[in-house]
Amino acid sequence: MSTSLFAASVLIIGGSHLATPNYLISSLHDALQAKGATVHTLGVCGTTPSDWLKETAGTCGGAERVGKTTPTVLGAKAVTQPIGQLISKDKPALVVVVIGDNIAGYGNPGFPKAWAWQQVSSLTKAIAATNTPCVWIGPTWGNEGGHYNRTFPRVQMVSKFLETGVAPCRYIDSLKLSKQGEWPTTDGQHLTATGYRHWGEALAKEISAVPASGKAVQ
Q1: Residue 163: which domain range?
Q2: Does 37 fall in a domain?
Q3: Res 214: pLDDT
Q4: Is residue 15 one of the residues assigned to a domain?
Q5: Which InterPro entries would you find in this protein's record (predicted)?
């Protein structure tokens, strides 16, 4: 990403990985600000991509952070905002989407590909309609089992699906940023504070390579 683009603003939206103060709402937010960006992060736990087309209440809380302020825990008041309205208000130079685990169908026999495609394409089309460059961040390895019944094969399947399905957003494959089990979790899916710090710093480096045109990097 060019220096001029980072001098503008970045909007980050997504689910539970942004919804707690010591998660990416701290590490990724801080790392991007350290590169000169003004960042607005809104995380609403349990949300899927289409939930960001309209106001949708979270199922397990949320958090919001603007600039250098500390994260505000929203709790039961957590609700998404339509992406078009958020972009119109913030006028970001870049939108970052952190959604992957919530479309994986962990614990189910098969991956819900058709439903997931509808979910992802609905949000990418809405962002594309604003001509705003975007980045979509895929899931980390996490740990197998746990509360969410994750398996490494399903995580890989979801990551490959997103890699080919989020254009015109650029995809960042988080699986390439660590080894299996390198970043420990608290429940199989959500990382420890140390894990989120490593993930956030690694993502910031990847995001900084996004071209100013916003076109997907193949």
Answers
A1: 3-207
A2: yes
A3: 43
A4: yes
A5: SGNH_hydro_sf
Inside any domain, residue 213: no
CA distance 62 to 141: 23
CATH number of the domain residue 25 falls in: 3.40.50.1110
Residue 209, pLDDT score = 81
Residue 116 covered by a domain: yes
pTM attached to this predicted model: 0.94
First to last CA, the chain: 16
Give how many domains the chain has, as a whole number: 1
160 contacts: CB under 8 Å, gap ≥ 6: none
What is the model's pLDDT at position 7? 64
